[in-house]
């Protein structure tokens, strides 16, 4: 499989940059969409995903037809509630809804969520509140009841990622008739964003994950999962979330079960 036209948001750094490398190696044509230029020799559409007007304008710079859309742009809760909600969900959804108009049934979308989103069932009321919100102003009001005091921006990130997973599940095969859509949920991964997570979540939460898995993930390992989901090898996988964390969540569960079963 080569010669596809691939649009990658957040392709200027970290996981997104490794996704760019991977598709280029496969012989695909890549366009990056980011607030920063790509360090590679690929066209970049500069856009701030917090700005709806800029997103609407950026769409005119996209290729006429798109085979694969990878939504990799993201920001941590350290950047505040507004950025966590707008970049990770509202801006991603707005951009994707424009981009898919240039996609056909055989094309597909892969969006990066996070292992913090995998407990979306526990957050379903907050997820519905965010799904109902079209603007950041609406989202601020709608999700406020679901952001515990003192943890607003941290929980806004978790809620946005949970919403990415649910939006993907319910939009799969529907946004464009028959089109596949999936998410990849990385655990902690060695990119510039990881330091933000250490600053906002803390080593108490992150180091046990590193211990369970033996190390943190590498961006190319997340890119490999994205490449698989975007390929024809994944032709019957849609509306799914693929966790790529080296087994860290399983380690947490084992610890919890050991304590509960012993008690
Ligand atoms: N690194 C981790 O530990 C980890 C874990 C789970 C999920 N993720 C997710 O993986 C994705 C990629 O993150 P990363 O770790 O590669 O981080 P990164 O900071 O290296 O890359 C993020 C990219 O998104 C772009 N971006 C951020 N805000 C933007 C905006 N307002 N408009 C346009 N572009 C914007 C940045 O410029 C950057 O190129 C994100 O969605 C992140 O939430 C990362």
Rg (CA only): 18 Å
Query: What's the arrangement of strands in the largest beta sheet?
Result: 3-2-1-4-5-6-7
Helix content class = 40-55%
- Listing every helix as H and every strand as E from the N terminus to the C terminus, the arrangement reads EHEEHEHEHHHEHHHEH
Number of domains: 1
Characterize the biggest β-sheet. Answer: 7 strands, parallel
DSSP strand tally: 7
Strand-residue fraction?
A: 5-15%
CATH class: Alpha Beta
Q: Tally the helices.
A: 10
Overall structural class, as computed from helix and strand content, comes to alpha/beta
Flag low-confidence runs: none
Bound molecules: nicotinamide-adenine-dinucleotide
Would you give the CATH topology? Rossmann fold
Termini separation: 53 Å
